[in-house]
Design goal:
heterodimer; A: alpha/beta; 6-stranded mixed sheet; 10 strands; globular; B: alpha+beta; elongated
Chain lengths: 249, 305
């Protein structure tokens, strides 16, 4: 029922707005409690099925940008819509339902060390109270997609960095989210493994999931040629389709 | 909540006790130790209370009548005393019975002191022994009896005794013992709660990451809280049941080992059957409450974003 409700809202949202944007930010300002201005009036629209790189120097506001999308932070000013929900105005108890439409991938994987690979992924489906049979099938399917079905009984500590990141990606996509937010997913990985991870993300994007990825990896951005949004000092300074990294490292 | 979700919570609750081995061990140990001490004190309080009640119940009023009081007057006094509300039992002891009792008390050896006294020249007065419903009311009742005595032209009562002075001290002591018992049990309960909530808080801090990830993937707060709730309840119920059983078993052993030694001191330990229901109820309720409350409170603290 909740799923249906979400889909209805998206449909109604699209019907009224006549657009197909998964993420919409209108004049977003974010000032932290310590007085740091992280974002200064950012407006952006990201379409369904887009692949967006978020680039810029450290401390430019990339992380804040992403945290706003998965409602870890709320904007000080401005409106932000994710999948049709005005998530700045969301009631506390509705947050979980919005997060189910967003998969998050971190640089440090954030897997639960005491759970097996299978359990780490199934956990995300249990959390949304999916039926057990479906959990089992879907979890194994997703692990197959990321190429780790044969290791589903292993613990995270028994896997390489690249493999752990695959598990965390599997966990992010297992609930079929509309958006995947990835904060430097290749930051801890060697170049070769990074490319494998990027191919995986590309594959997921190809299957219909919007991906927003913050990165410092010039090679990846330049070789994949997707939309690039550059943030500096809390403002969007560049937004190019098929763009390049544009910074010297 | 779906049934499958509920079974999932149960499963997770059980599992996490094993997974968090050391933390669970710490919680179990602290609940165990607190309840153990508490249990011992509950039993002590029970026995102190019983001893106090036993001593108090022995408080009686003795009314000595004048030896020359006539039978009609005695009957009249007896009726009037019997009418006092607080009086639960009034025993009439005739002069002959009094002599008999005195002889028995003095025993074989000293009995010859009383030789030669019989119904003809009995020096003893008629006495009443009076039990009251509430031992603390003896003074009031004694005063009432004195008032009755004063209503006659010549008082038919020579003396009213209830252990003046001694009784007041006795009640002070028994009251102090009772209060001390309640205070100790209350203080220990609070200490137990604090100790355990602290242990559970440590468990939660250790699992903050887990909670964070659960929230990240869209778990509702209720969903996150349930397994912790079940885990806390399980730890509380199981530990308190085991502790209660141990305490009562130990108590049974103590009774068997010491009851003969103690009975010489007019002191009787309460039998296990007598103390078991209330002791187990108190300990298991408290243990379960501590387990559940501890986990609920600590989780709530970390669920706020």
């Amino acid at each position: 029922m909740k799923e249906l409700a979400v889909h209805c809202r998206i449909y109604i949202f699209e019907l009224f707005t006549g657009c197909d944007n998964v993420i919409e930010m209108h004049d977003i300002w974010k000032t932290y409690a310590d007085g740091t201005n992280a974002l200064n009036g950012v407006s952006v629209k990201i379409d369904r099925n887009e692949f967006v790189y978020l680039v810029g120097p450290s401390g430019a506001g990339k992380s804040t940008f992403m945290k706003l999308i998965y409602r870890e932070e709320v904007p000080t000013k401005g409106e932000i819509f994710v999948n049709g929900f005005n998530i700045g105005k969301l009631k506390q108890r509705k947050i979980p339902y919005v997060r189910r439409n967003i998969g998050v991938v971190f640089q440090d994987f954030r897997l639960l060390p005491k759970l097996t690979v299978y359990e780490n992924v199934a956990f995300a489906m249990e959390a949304i109270e999916a039926p057990r049979k479906i959990i089992k099938k879907r979890t194994l399917d997703v692990l197959d997609l990321v190429g780790l079905k044969h290791k589903h009984k292993n613990y995270p500590s028994q896997l390489s960095g690249g493999e752990q990141q695959r598990v965390s990606i599997a966990r992010a996509i297992v609930n079929n989210p509309a958006v995947i937010v990835a904060d430097e997913p290749t930051g801890n990985l060697d170049p070769e493994t990074s490319i494998e991870i990027m191919h995986l993300l590309e594959e997921i994007n190809f299957r219909g999931t919007t991906i927003v990825m913050a990165t410092h990896n010039k090679e990846i951005v330049n070789s994949m040629r997707k939309r690039v949004i550059a943030i500096e000092g809390g403002n969007i300074v560049r937004d190019v389709l098929r763009g390049e990294y544009g910074y010297e490292i | 909540m779906k049934f499958s979700t509920l079974t999932r919570h149960m499963r997770e609750g059980f599992k996490s006790i094993w997974r968090n081995g050391w933390m669970s061990f710490a919680s179990i140990t602290s609940i165990f130790i607190s309840l153990l001490i508490l249990g011992v004190f509950i039993l002590l309080a029970f026995n102190m209370n019983a001893v106090a009640a036993q001593i108090e119940s022995q408080v009686q009023i003795r009314v000595y009548l004048e030896t020359d009081a006539s039978d009609e007057v005695i009957a009249d006094v007896q009726r009037k005393i019997g009418n006092i509300e607080q009086v639960s039992k009034l025993t009439y002891i005739s002069k002959e019975e009094g002599l008999e009792i005195l002889r028995e008390r003095m025993g074989e050896e000293n009995g010859n002191w009383l030789e030669g006294y019989d119904s003809e020249n009995n020096p003893l007065p008629v006495t009443f022994t009076i039990d009251v419903f509430d031992p603390k009311q003896v003074k009031t009742v004694a005063d009432q009896i004195n008032t009755i005595a004063a209503s006659y032209e010549t008082s038919p009562i020579s003396d009213v005794k209830y252990g003046q002075g001694t009784v007041e001290t006795l009640f002070k002591i028994t009251n102090a013992v009772r209060t001390a018992g309640y205070v100790i049990v209350a203080v220990l309960s609070i200490t137990a709660i604090l100790l355990i909530s602290n242990t559970i808080r440590m468990t939660i801090v250790a699992r903050q990451r887990e909670i964070g990830i659960m929230k990240m993937v869209g778990a509702t707060n209720a969903f996150i809280r349930w397994p912790f709730f079940i885990e806390g309840a399980l730890i509380g119920v199981i530990t308190s049941t085991v502790t209660t059983a141990l305490v009562l078993f130990g108590y049974d052993r103590v009774i068997k080992a010491f009851q003969y030694d103690l009975s010489f001191m007019m002191f009787q330990l309460q039998p296990v059957k007598e103390v078991m229901p209330l002791t187990s109820l108190m300990m298991i309720l408290l243990g379960s409450f501590i387990g559940i409350w501890g986990s609920v409170v600590s989780v709530r603290k970390y669920l706020k974003v």
